[in-house]
Amino acid sequence: MTRISExxxxxxxxxxxxxxxxxTVGDPxxxxxxxxxxxxxxxxxxxxxxxxxxSDPIADGPTIQSxxxxxxxxxTRPLDVFxxxxxxxxxxxxxxxxxxxxxxxxxxxxxxxLQIAKETKISGLIVPDLPVEEAAEYRKECVAAxxxxxxxxxxxxxxxxxxxxxxxxxxxxxxxxxxxxxxARTTIPDSAINLVKSYHAKLEGSIPxxxxxxxxxxxxxxxxxxxxxxxxxxGSAFVNVIADNSRNLDMAADKLKxxxxxLKTATRTDGQG
Length: 273
Known about the structure:
Strand order of the largest sheet: 5-4-3-2-1-9-8-7-6
Helix content: 40-55%
Order of helices and strands: HEHEHHEHHEHEEHEHEHEHH
Strand content: 5-15%
Radius of gyration: 17 Å
Shape: globular
CATH class: Alpha Beta
Distance between the termini: 28 Å
Number of domains: 1
Structural class: alpha/beta
Largest sheet: 9 strands, parallel
């Protein structure tokens, strides 16, 4: 059992869903990333997705694109992300997931990239631009390194392709709840709720279902949990806090912790959230 699987099993016993936070490493610099991740974990985040900045983030909206720009401007490189992951693992006991496009993996070489990931105790990988049809070698090496391969599914995913994704994903299935790119939204449409219900039924508990894209409020979290999600992924809402408080990073850390605490409370599935 991987660290991510253990975390979901632990939360299930507690009748809680997973709060998964995304943060772009190096926004605004590596030192602050460590502080911000600690604030998120202290606020109740269960799993942290660490984004590796890439110059062509095709799946990301303006909020995360701006964070990527700030990270690249600060000089953050993939090796810095691994070093930060190592430090986080020394200070906290939460699964860490790397979110990266395939180009940085290709430039390292798959075997070397996974070797470093294993050494720094990375629990899972998300590679949005790696098609499941071309991922056999990638998944084989990830399995050997005991690193979960987290694939994405979307409202437009064809049934035949969905079966492939179900067979290849591990840790959790990342369900994109909306059409478009990432970005915090004020409401979650009924279509997204119905999509979660549909995927919950299809998975039949075979793997945790984590829902992302647009989530930013406790009401949204509660609706998704009640629809059958095992976890929620929050990215742009946290990244916005950093951007909006760029002149007072102490306040940014405090607000990240506070927002995480609010959203985590909403993951309770025993009616008390």
